[in-house]
Amino acid sequence: MQERTIDKPSLNIGARIFGNAYLLLSLTMLFWAGNTIAGRAIAGTVPPLTLAWLRWTIAAAIILPLAWPHFKRDWPVIRRHWPILALLGALGFAAFISFYYVGLTMTTALNGLIINSAVPILIPLAVFVLYRETLNRSQALGIVLSLIGVVAVITKGNPGVLARLDLNEGDLFVLAAMCVFSIYTALLRKQPKMHWISFGACCFITGAIVTFPPFLSEVLTGQLVNPTFGAFLAIAYVGTLPSVIAQIMYIRGVELIGGSRAGAFLHLVPLFGALLAVLFLGEELEAFHLAGFGLIVCGVWLAQRQKPAPPVKL
Question: How far is CA 210 from CA 53, 83, 145, in A?
């Protein structure tokens, strides 16, 4: 009988991909950018709170079988520390994504993406508020500069909008989402010692539970999913690639090159997202988008040039 030969390179391709931090992190940022595009594309087709519940329910259903052995082993830790785990899941998963999807029904994907890019500067601000850790001069200046960039996007470069309080409600929801995520990130230092996949399962389950009542309220008020092919495709996308796959790839990327270097890839999210928004949503990139993004990036650079940002656990 003829012996079967196995193509060794084909066996190694998975290991090569999972060992390439730059590819993994770039794909992660692409998938996260795609989440904004999907959320904006189906605004009016899938109610935002329904989308939030579906996202975490799908993610929980996918990750729980994988996490179950670790989940059982970590159960004593989970039972002992359930209040902080519930708080982290409610903030970083349920509240964050609910505010974000609501915001995307009232603003453009480009606005959402650029305001999103302010997260690296909002995190040290949240740490300062929660723990009273001092900010150095560069951090303080970076925060001010980045916030000016956010204001430039929200006001579309017209300061008179602030005087008239004629602000886009969607932009404010997106900004609220970023503030919530920054608080969640600052609170991660209280995360109990447990396997990362157990922690992810706890957060996904909490996200599904906390978003269920808002989802139910949408159903009871007649806000239902319009069952189009695009709606089902977007729901499948947000429940898998940016939720589960991207989280795994980001964790692996941090493991390979460290949190500080991996964090720099976050700047790819608005860049990828802007390209996708122009290509698929027909949105126009305007001068105030570029000015706001430039101010935010300069602010982040100023805040991190003396002291690298601590790695973020996801």
Answer: 8, 14, 35
Is residue 269 a contact partner of residue 33, using CB atoms and an 8 Å limit? yes
Q: What secondary structure does DSSP assign to 198-231, as a single string?
A: HHHHHHHHHHHHHHHHHHHHHHHTT------HHH
Nearest to 168 by CA among 111, 98, 101, 114: 111
- Residue 308 pLDDT greater than 50, yes or no: no
What do you get for the CA distance between the two ends of the chain, in Å?
51
Give the integer Cα–Cα distance in Å for 12 and 95: 40
Asked whether residue 216 carries a pLDDT value surpassing 90, the answer given is: yes
DSSP reduced 3-state for 252: helix
Q: How far apart are CA 173 and CA 50, in angstroms?
A: 17
Q: What's the mean pLDDT when you consider all of the chain?
A: 85
Amino acid residing at 77: V
Residue 229 has pLDDT above 80, yes or no: yes
- Token pair in block for residue 250: 């980001």
Tell me the Ramachandran region of residue 258: left when phi exceeds 0, alpha when psi lies from -120 to 50, beta otherwise. Answer: left
Structure tokens that stand for 270 in this block: 């608005």
Query: What helix, strand, coil percent values describe the chain, rounded to 5?
Result: 80, 0, 20
| Burial group, residue 234, by CB count within 10 angstroms (0-12, 13-18, 19+) | buried
pTM listed for this prediction: 0.85
DSSP class of residue 283 equals -
Q: Residue 260: its pLDDT value, please?
A: 59
Residue 10 has pLDDT above 70, yes or no: no
Residue 173: other Cβ atoms inside 10 A: 23
List the domain boundaries for the chain.
22-117+169-283
Most confident of 77-91, 141-155, 279-293: 77-91
Q: How confident is the model at residue 4 (pLDDT cuts 50, 70, 90)?
A: very low
